[in-house]
Each structure stands twice: as C-alpha cells, then as structure tokens.
Specification:
Strand content of chain A: over 45%
Mean pLDDT of chain A: 96
Number of helices of chain A: 4
Oligomer: heterodimer
Order of helices and strands of chain A: EHEEEEEHEEEEEHEEEEEHEEEE
Number of strands of chain A: 20
Largest interface: A-B, 24 and 14 residues
Mean pLDDT of chain B: 92
Low-confidence stretches of chain B: none
Distance between the termini of chain B: 33 Å
Helix content of chain B: under 10%
Distance between the termini of chain A: 52 Å
Number of helices of chain B: 0
Low-confidence stretches of chain A: none
C-alpha cells in the first residue's frame, strides 16, 4: 500500500498546475524512490517527466510499486479543496481503484477527506538517454517566461543559439522579427538572478513557441530554469524543486 | 519551412 504525507499541499498543487495543460491522463508511479510521472502530449512532440522524491515527504511508505492512473483535471478539482498550507496525505491500496486524499489544516481543526477514482492508463514509457548537452544555460525562470511570451506574439517558432557570448532567442513573423540575447552574467550577490552558460559546443536549434510558453507555467516551481541544448536532439527544460523536479522535453523543428 | 519532429524519433519506448 501507499501512504505519503506532504507538509505543504502547495507542492502537489503547483506541480499539477504546471502540467495539466500539456497532458490529461497520466500514471503517477509510486515506488521506493518517491512518486514519478512521465507523459507525452497528444502529438508526441513534448514530454513531461516529474519526480517527487521520498525525502520531500514528511512520511512515505510504499510497499510495492503502484501506478495511480489519474485524470489531471479531476485531480485538480479535488486539490482545489486543499489550502496551500494544509498537510496532505495520499493513501492507496495495492492495485487500487481509488486514491484517498486527506487535507488537514494547520490549526488541526478541519480535516477533509476525498477519494479520487483511478483509471487504467496504458501508456508507452520512453527511454530518455543520458545526454552530454552542447550547451547548458541557467537563468531566472521569470526571464525565460517573459522572452517566450514576448516572442510568441511575433512568431510560432523561435531559433535558439548558444555561443560563448551568450544565448540568443530570435524569431521572424508576419509583422516583423525580434531577437533577445542574454549574455553570461553570473550575478554573484543573487545567483538565482544570473545567467550562466556552460558551452561544450555552439548549438542552434528551432522550437515551437506554443510549447515553450506552455512549459513556462512551471515557473512557479523554481526561481531558476535550466535549459539544455544539443544539435539534433530534443531540448530539455528543467525546474528543480527542493526534493524533486519537473522536466520538459521538446522535439526540435527540423530543416529550413 | 521547417517541420516539427516528434519525440519518438529520438526516444525509444522501454
């Protein structure tokens, strides 16, 4: 059986908020490393991989691997009933047909109990190879969100070029073109406001801005975002949490 | 014009 307690319901609420517009039905795989999820959007262009590690739970017990088939819209309806500061306890039997969610407020004078029906989701699981990326860029998540939003008003694609000078986002559309260049600037006082680039080799790839804007819904999970690029491979965008992460992979647009 | 690749071109099912 599974019994997992989060001190703050906001952890799960924010994760579901971040991915619910990209994927609808997914398996939350519970095992001794914590709760993991991997799902692709309908067009198989983007993939989200999430991991809430065991250390992030006030209490975590999972006797055997359990796959919780969940519709994220339904889960979000139940999570709306949890206040951010409520303690949340998830419980499920082995091969469960429902997930029990209990929310307790900090004054300990309100306890809410919900059961969410589970689904049988037969989803192909993709093997994501360990990759040495040509360029790894760390920047403020708000900065990346602003760039994607601004450029998505001009075009549906963005060319991303990483060189030793910096990272350049450029696009061309019907009304004109635009480009944003961020130079390496490891802000020493406030590192989370800096932009750092590790470059193994220069890279240049084109991606759909619609997906990048969607991924940026996860900006609330972390002040910084790490963007990993290599020529001819999917882009990796990672939002690190204290005890876990949400990662997005996006296939590039090929040929010009 | 560029064409949108799919992840199945890069990641194999396990």
């Amino acid at each position: 059986m599974l019994e997992a307690r989060l001190e703050q319901s906001s952890v799960l609420k924010k994760v579901v908020d971040a991915i619910k517009d990209l994927v609808q039905d997914c398996n939350f795989d519970c095992n001794d490393s914590g709760i993991q999820l991997q799902a692709m959007d309908n067009s198989h262009v983007a993939l989200v991989a999430m991991h809430l590690k065991t250390e992030g739970f006030a209490l975590y017990r999972c006797d055997r691997n359990i796959a919780l088939g969940i519709n994220l819209v339904s889960l979000q309806k139940v999570l709306r009933a949890a206040q951010n500061e409520d303690v949340m306890t998830l419980k499920a039997e082995d091969s469960p047909d429902a997930l029990s969610l209990v929310f307790e407020n900090s004054e300990n004078d309100r306890i809410s109990e919900y059961d969410l029906k589970l689904m049988d989701i037969d989803q192909e699981h993709l093997g994501i190879p360990e990759t040495e990326y040509g360029a790894t860029v760390k920047m403020p998540s708000a900065e990346f969100q602003r760039i994607c939003r601004d450029l998505s008003l001009l075009s549906e694609s963005v060319a991303i070029e990483a060189t030793k000078e910096g990272i350049k986002f450029s696009c061309t559309g019907d009304i004109g073109k635009g480009a944003v260049t961020l130079r390496q600037n490891p802000n020493v006082e406030k590192p989370e406001l800096g932009t750092t680039i590790e470059l193994q080799e220069p890279v240049a790839l084109t991606f759909s801005l619609k997906y990048l804007v969607n991924f940026c819904k996860a900006s609330g999970l972390s002040n910084t975002v790490t963007i990993s690029l290599s020529n001819e491979v999917p882009l990796l965008i990672e939002y690190e949490m204290e005890h876990g992460y949400v990662r997005f992979y996006l296939a590039p647009k090929i040929g010009d | 014009t560029s064409t949108q690749a799919r992840l199945n071109d890069f990641f194999k099912p396990v």
